[in-house]
């Protein structure tokens, strides 16, 4: 897709991004991607395609060679704090995301790092918990919760920071069908730009307006869910069917 | 999996639970220090300490059975160490029991070790069972315990159950393939399990750190609010400390 980026409308712009893991494994080999503001994009592809690695570049956890810009801000060492205010990353395993003894502490962790005053932190925590349907769970311990609840709290810890762009790594993996459906509905209620790394066709179809297919560290297809997800030849070639 | 948490009853409501962690820490450590420095042969001081512990335990509304089982866990360790002292101790008056004799000084040592251990352990259990672990750590931080220790302890408390679960799952997967661990050359399997548990924990640590960085973590933990010590906290702290000290000082006059 040849698009000329219009700065005011661009949420994420990636150009020629390469990344090699410290052990020498190449993970990204020249990724170009443009995400417009307000768009919800499914990032799909087989295991090892580089989807999660790409997600980690979106708020500067990893930095490769090439160019990554979010909301017009280049992702580099200097801008990393501002970038992390803009881009919220929800990790796949909630036990990696939730490290505090209580829900309240975990959800307030991000806003506190943003150095918000106490009153606003409390407000942000309450609002985020309400968004994910977990209001009143402030004093519970995350490690006592069910997997689905932990997933919701993980999302809340990032929503509390009020990010412009939400990046979710496998949001419904390991959830039971009802948990999957509820989480999908929850995602649909959230405004803003979203990038969702997933293997789940339902999420791609029901939540996303666009599907980006990756393999071997490159974007191999990009289009509407109806086109991409019905192209059996394409899906089979890239290990999704 | 479900685990028994050390602070399982830490969220009950009672006058003791409501106290500031700092007040509880100082008061209960005062009892411990007075207790372990009381010379053997004294009786009244231990009655004072025991009474203090019982009063606090009663006010804390902790289930008696829970307290008792927790305290009794240490008994076997004491008995292994001290049970034989009365029979081995030489010198001083002895009581003849026919086959063997029992030393009076040895008996006092046994009594001392047992009573001091029971009272000290009760104090620690009271502290950890009436204070949520996180509050306890924050209390320590405000008492100038280095952040490094409290952070490590907090993460340990958070992740130890996860690691136990992981080990348990690995063990099940191993046993379901009929591992018996019968001979010494089977031991390498356990070595491999420990190694892969270590690697998994290390990888998890990496991911947890990434998730924290993604939320703007820069090495410090800002807090929402810093609770203040209230009059009740000071009163509890002073009353318990003075009571324990007076018990300790009785020895000097007698």
Key words describing this protein structure:
heterodimer; A: 241 residues; alpha/beta; Rossmann fold; 6-stranded mixed beta sheet; 4-stranded antiparallel beta sheet; 10 helices; 37% helix; B: 254 residues; mainly alpha; 2 domains; two-stranded antiparallel sheet; 11 helices; 2% strand; flat
Instruction: Write down the CATH topology of chain A.
Output: Rossmann fold
Give the helices and strands of chain B as they follow along the chain: HHHHHHEEHHHHH
Q: Summarize model confidence as the mean pLDDT of chain A.
A: 92
* Class from secondary-structure proportions of chain B: mainly alpha
Major beta sheet, strand line-up of chain A: 6-7-8-3-9-10
Number of DSSP helices of chain B? 11
Number of helices of chain A: 10
**CATH class group of chain A:** Alpha Beta
The SS-based structural class of chain A is: alpha/beta
The total of beta strands of chain A comes to: 10
Beta-strand percentage range of chain B: under 5%
Tally of structural domains of chain A: 1
Number of DSSP E strands of chain B: 2
Order of helices and strands of chain A: EEEHEEHEHHHHEHEHEEHH
At the fourth CATH level, what is the homologous superfamily of chain A?
P-loop containing nucleotide triphosphate hydrolases
The outline of chain A comes out as: globular
Oligomer: heterodimer
Radius of gyration of chain A (CA) equals 18 Å
Q: How would a textbook summarize the main sheet of chain B?
A: 2 strands, antiparallel
CATH-level-2 architecture of chain A? 3-Layer(aba) Sandwich
Portion of residues within helices of chain A: 25-40%
């Amino acid at each position: 897709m040849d698009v000329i980026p219009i700065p005011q409308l661009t949420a994420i712009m990636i150009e020629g991004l390469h990344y090699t893991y410290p052990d020498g494994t190449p993970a990204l080999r020249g990724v170009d991607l443009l995400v417009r503001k307000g768009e919800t994009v499914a990032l799909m592809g087989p295991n090892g395609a580089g989807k999660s690695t790409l997600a980690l570049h979106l708020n500067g956890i990893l930095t490769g060679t090439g160019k990554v810009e979010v909301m017009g801000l280049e992702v580099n060492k200097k801008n990393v704090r501002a970038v992390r205010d803009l881009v919220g990353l929800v990790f796949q395993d909630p036990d990696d995301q939730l490290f505090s003894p209580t829900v309240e502490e975990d959800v307030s962790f991000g806003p506190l790092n943003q150095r918000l005053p106490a009153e606003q932190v409390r407000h942000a925590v309450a609002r985020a918990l309400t968004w994910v349907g977990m209001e009143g769970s402030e004093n519970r311990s995350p490690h006592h919760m069910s997997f689905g609840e932990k997933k919701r709290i993980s999302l809340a810890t990032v929503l509390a920071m009020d990010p412009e762009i939400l990046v979710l790594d496998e949001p419904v993996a390991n959830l039971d069908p009802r948990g999957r459906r509820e989480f999908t509905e929850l995602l649909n209620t959230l405004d803003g730009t979203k990038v969702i790394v997933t293997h789940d066709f339902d999420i791609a179809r029901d939540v996303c307006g666009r599907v980006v297919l990756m393999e071997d560290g490159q974007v191999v297809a990009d289009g509407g869910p109806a086109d991409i997800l019905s192209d059996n030849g394409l899906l089979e070639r890239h290990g999704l069917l | 999996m479900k685990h028994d948490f050390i602070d399982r009853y830490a969220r009950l409501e009672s006058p003791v639970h409501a106290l500031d962690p700092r007040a509880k820490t100082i008061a209960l450590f005062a009892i411990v220090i007075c207790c372990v420095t009381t010379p053997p042969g004294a009786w009244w001081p231990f009655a004072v300490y025991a009474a203090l512990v019982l009063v606090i335990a009663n006010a804390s509304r902790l289930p008696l059975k829970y307290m008792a089982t927790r305290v009794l866990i240490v008994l076997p360790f004491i008995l292994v160490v001290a049970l034989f002292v009365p029979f081995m101790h030489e010198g001083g008056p002895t009581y003849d029991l026919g086959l063997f004799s029992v030393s009076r000084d040895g008996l006092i040592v046994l009594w001392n070790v047992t009573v001091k251990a029971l009272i000290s352990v009760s104090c620690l259990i009271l502290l950890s069972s009436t204070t949520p672990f996180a509050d306890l750590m924050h209390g320590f931080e405000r008492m100038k315990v280095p952040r490094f220790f409290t952070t490590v302890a907090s993460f340990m408390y958070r992740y130890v159950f996860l690691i136990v679960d992981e080990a348990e799952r690995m063990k099940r997967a191993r046993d379901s393939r009929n591992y018996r661990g019968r001979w010494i050359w089977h031991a390498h399997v356990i070595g491999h399990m420990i190694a892969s548990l270590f690697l998994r924990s290390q990888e998890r640590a990496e991911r947890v750190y990434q998730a924290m960085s993604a939320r703007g973590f820069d090495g410090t933990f800002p807090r929402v609010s810093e609770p203040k010590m209230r009059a009740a906290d000071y009163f509890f702290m002073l009353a318990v400390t003075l009571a324990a000290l007076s018990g300790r000082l009785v020895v000097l006059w007698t």
